[in-house]
Amino acid sequence: MITQGPRDKMGAALRERFGQDSVEVVRTEYVGPQVGKQLRNDGILAVLYAMGMILIYVGFRFDFRFSPGVIIALIHDAIVTLGYFVVTRHEFNLTSVTVILTVVGYSVNDTIVIYDRIRENRKRFKGTA
After folding, report:
1. Which of the four, 41, 66, 107, 118, has the lowest number of CB atoms within 10 Å?
2. Containing H/E element for 83?
3. Tens of pLDDT, residues 21-73
4. Residues 104 and 77: beta-carbon distance below 8 Å
5. Angle CA(10)–CA(15)–CA(19) in degrees, nearest 5?
6. What is the pTM for the complete model shown?
């Protein structure tokens, strides 16, 4: 557990840097460095595995040339959502992570629907161009 001294020092440093009224410490939790490192590594691996599986799925389902577009759309939507949290200074918590994962899920779904329409239209209008 983090003691009162370091917690107060962190709050004071944040208030000094960003202004007295702009910083409010809502909750303080302590995660040891070993646990934090493990969580970070597991999170990075999970994201890489998920992106790899999305690339493979889109590649087999549609065309491998379409796969990078899905990942670019995913990254774009996640960055825009994170940017919203930064600009509006909303609290970033577990619910926020759920929001970002939901946006990413809808992004993949919408991209796959669009690619399905492209595939249908490529078959329909094959001789015209």
Report:
1. 41
2. helix 67-88
3. 888 777 777 667 777 778 778 877 888 888 888 888 888 888 888 888 888 88
4. yes
5. 165
6. 0.59
